[in-house]
Amino acid sequence: MKHKDLTAKCVKKLREAMEILHTLGFGPKQSNEVAGYTLLALLDLRPTQTWKEVAAPLRGITPIIKFVSKAYGVHYAPNTRETIRDEAVKYFVEAGMLIRNPDDLSRPTNSGNTVYRVEQNALKLFRSFGSREWASKLKFYLASHEHIRCELERGRNLARIPVRLLSGKTVKLSPGGQNPLIKTVIEEFCPRFVPGGIVIYIGDAEDKFLHLDTDYLNNLGVVVPAPTKMPDIVIHDARRNWLVLIEAVTSAGPVDGKRRRELKKLFSGCKSGLVFVTAFLNRESMRSFLTQISWETEVWVAEDLDHLIHFNGERFLGPYPDVLPL
């Protein structure tokens, strides 16, 4: 095929993809060229193919970029990943058109292995584009769209992790990642080491501010700027007037020297004393981070529920009761 003809087919496919997105009610950013190419990649549709040939492969953001480059000759820089995810894929998922991690619902949202697949009802609709059935199938899809979205949302909710706070309130975390550890920290660490503590903040891979009591923090003299990297959990021990800042670590992010300085600065106006804690699932997962953990911090390992490791020796140096002289 001549280059000129192929280019024309590329342009035609892109325009059709953008038209479909616009027809489905997506806004300007979610129906622009980037979104159009993203849809074509998620459907594995090349310029020379017909819409009847669309497929639904599992595809992540980087493979989307590679497909667009190879099939359409459009080369996106690596930093375009954020744009594709935040301005296209994210909205496709929220609309129920895409399913995130259908092969493993427990995979965390921010995993580098996250993949997406076009939902089956949407796939059937796309296969009818350009045919006589398009109008009727579009009408049916739009009419049943809310039902489809609710069913997908119900499936995602079933996989969520319920966490019971000290107050008795329950919040639900997205599955996977550090969230099972966050659940253990709140339900096991807190009653042991911060009894009666108030959980002010819980971060989540899908919702960084899943649980945040802004007024409570403000009363402690803390104002959190919107674009900030909060610790995974913040708990106030009112009895001792401590603010306990906890990082739950499964693959990255212990309280090292740099992170301790960041948190100290972020909570610099706090009227409570700051306590820095890194939580691990087990000693094995802690091993690779031992050299990074900052002095003047604490470490809690979930497999040893009743113990803390103090990285601040001089304050706790001395014999324990069972080895004191009689």
Helix and strand topology:
Elements: H1 3-23, H2 33-42, H3 61-72, H4 80-94, E1 98-100, E2 116-118, H5 120-127, H6 134-158, E3 161-164, E4 170-173, H7 179-193, E5 198-202, E6 211-212, H8 214-219, E7 233-237, E8 242-249, H9 257-266, E9 273-280, H10 283-287, E10 297-301, E11 308-311
Parallel strand pairs: 8-9, 9-10
Antiparallel strand pairs: 1-2, 3-4, 5-6, 5-7, 7-8, 10-11
Helix pairs in contact: 1-2, 2-3, 5-6
How would you explain this protein's 3D organization?
The structure is a single chain. By secondary structure, the chain is α+β, with helices and mostly antiparallel strands. The chain has 2 domains: 3-158, Arc Repressor Mutant, subunit A (Orthogonal Bundle); 161-323, BsuBI/PstI restriction endonuclease, C-terminal domain (Trna Endonuclease, Chain: A, domain 1, 3-Layer(aba) Sandwich). Helices cover 39% and strands 16% of the residues. The chain has 10 helices and 11 strands. The chain has helices at residues 3-23, 33-42, 61-72, 80-94, 120-127, 134-158, 179-193, 214-219, 257-266, 283-287, and strands at 98-100, 116-118, 161-164, 170-173, 198-202, 211-212, 233-237, 242-249, 273-280, 297-301, 308-311. It has a 7-stranded mixed β-sheet with strand order 6-5-7-8-9-10-11, sandwiched between helices. A two-stranded antiparallel sheet has the order 1-2. A two-stranded antiparallel ribbon has the order 3-4. Helix 1 crosses helix 2, helix 2 packs across helix 3 and helix 5 packs antiparallel against helix 6 (134-158). It starts with a helix and ends in a 15-residue tail after the last strand.
